[in-house]
Write a structure and sequence with these properties.
The chain is mostly beta strands. It has helices at about 30-35, 95-100, and strands spanning about 1-15, 15-20, 25-30, 45-50, 55-60, 70, 85-95, 105. The chain is built from 2 helices and 8 strands, in the order E-E-E-H-E-E-E-E-H-E. The radius of gyration is 14 Å and the shape is globular.
Length: about 120
């Protein structure tokens, strides 16, 4: 049996930009992507701690080292710059493997989104 489990999480990242005029997705600093074991094109679930919005999109690689967390397209309506979000990705795995799997969890600096 295969089950879906949490693979990676960026916990409490700060939204730096909301760009309504860009085709959908979330742009994430490449340093944060590497630290969280996430890749461009990967589906992510986003939770906005400020307003309770929950939605899914996919990742676009952002400039390395800038701390960018930018919601694009329709998702830009669900956040404001400065909001705190949790970004999660999931993986399918065998039930037995899932019992011992440990997800990658990253807690970015609350002001800069830099990897701590």
């Amino acid at each position: 049996m295969m089950i879906e489990v949490l693979k990676s999480k960026l916990h409490c990242a700060r939204v730096t930009e909301a760009n309504l005029n860009y085709m959908g997705s979330i742009t994430i600093d490449e340093d944060l992507m590497d630290a969280a074991n996430m890749i461009a094109g990967e589906k992510v679930h986003i939770v906005n701690n400020n307003n309770g919005e929950r939605f899914e999109t996919y990742i676009i690689k952002g400039e390395r080292g800038g701390g960018q967390i930018c919601l694009n397209g329709a998702a830009a309506r669900k956040v404001q710059p400065g909001d705190i979000v949790i970004i999660m990705s999931y993986a399918l795995m065998d039930f037995e493997e899932a019992k011992t799997f440990k997800p990658t969890v990253v807690f970015p600096d609350p002001e800069t989104n830099k990897v701590v």
